Amino acid sequence: MITQPDSLYNTSQISIGRRVEIRKGARLEAQGTRTNRPKIVIGDGTSIHNYFHCGAAESVIIGKNVLIAGRVYITDHDHTFDKKDLLPINAGLTVSPVVIDDEVWIGEGAVILKGVTVGKRAVIGANAVVTKNVPPNAIVGGVPAKVIRFIDFND
Hints:
By secondary structure, the protein is mainly β. It is built from no helices and 20 strands. The protein starts with 6 loop residues before the first strand and ends in a 5-residue tail after the last strand.
């Protein structure tokens, strides 16, 4: 169920699983030319809160039963800005896929940037900026995000 999205761009390249809730203000943007597979995939049972923004030029895969708080931004690309003869808007993109594994919890205002894989059952703290891979069961926070500790499910 998607409630009052702000933007759904290139919907033929977006795949949303069963029992997914996406709340008000979402922006799901699959950029670029058509491919044989979806560029944005959201797995079954995932819950996404208000004002989520996801941009995919290659692929953003969000697993099953993921909890995403409000104002989270996930992207697989950056605009190129270091070409002297081109304006930033015309200079192209740097792209690398993003994977959010199953049962991850992403806190309010977090940002996950290109090329990142977040391992199963990891927790991303509020307002963290994730620039590197996150191991399974890790809790990360900060700018840039760093491992704070690991969750021990044996306790």
